[in-house]
Design a protein that fits this description.
single chain, alpha/beta, two-stranded parallel sheet, two-stranded antiparallel sheet, 4 helices, 6 strands, about 25% helix
Length: about 190
């Protein structure tokens, strides 16, 4: 697995990573300086996803590229500390989550011998898993109503990054816990 360093916008270290055998610890709190990875006590969908894929394709080598920043939004007007995925972002130094995604993918794809066995590995992108949206659904109704078009554009650009306009995309949906005074944590979810 190759995970890009998840940081807030305008941080030059965003997207740095290193190929490493998949293990729990690639969730919130994970960090990388490009030379070593620091694992956390959390993980994401990649652990159970990879286990299921390995069971379905036992003789296939699998490689996962991950860039994720908890709390991020697509629209930059819906973000604060956590960052935005807006492709046309111009805030601060103009570097954001989308840029870190591109850096992560480019750095991961530039490694030709992922497992260090002396044989070139060929990566064949097979799909995108997307889990995000809460930060776009808790600010304003206008922002929430723009989510579909923002997400559609972002997914088109991600597919273009992998040079495959038909790359399958799986989008997860988090249910609102209702643990809020008005009964909805994400007021416009």
């Amino acid at each position: 697995m190759y995970q890009g360093n998840p940081v807030g916008d305008n941080d030059e270290t965003g997207g740095l990573g290193k190929w490493e055998v998949l293990q729990p610890g690639n969730g919130t709190g994970f960090a990388s300086d490009g030379k070593s990875n620091t694992f956390s006590d959390r993980f994401g969908v990649e652990v159970s996803f990879a286990k299921e894929l390995q069971e379905l394709y036992p003789n296939q080598k699998l490689a996962i590229i991950k860039y994720a920043r908890n709390g991020s939004s697509i629209d930059s007007s819906g973000t604060a500390y956590f960052g935005a995925w807006e492709p046309d972002f111009r805030g601060g130094k103009g570097i954001n989550q989308y840029d870190y995604f591109l850096k992560t993918v480019n750095n991961a794809m530039a490694v030709h011998d992922i497992d260090g066995d002396g044989v070139e590995d060929v990566l064949i992108p097979s799909g995108i898993i997307w889990m995000q949206g809460e930060s776009d659904a808790d600010k304003t109704e206008l922002l929430a109503n723009q989510y579909y078009s923002n997400l559609k554009r972002l997914m088109e650009l991600m597919r273009a990054t992998f040079r495959n306009n038909d790359l399958p995309i799986v989008i997860g949906k988090i249910s609102d816990s209702g643990d809020d005074v008005d009964g909805k944590v994400w007021g416009f979810g």
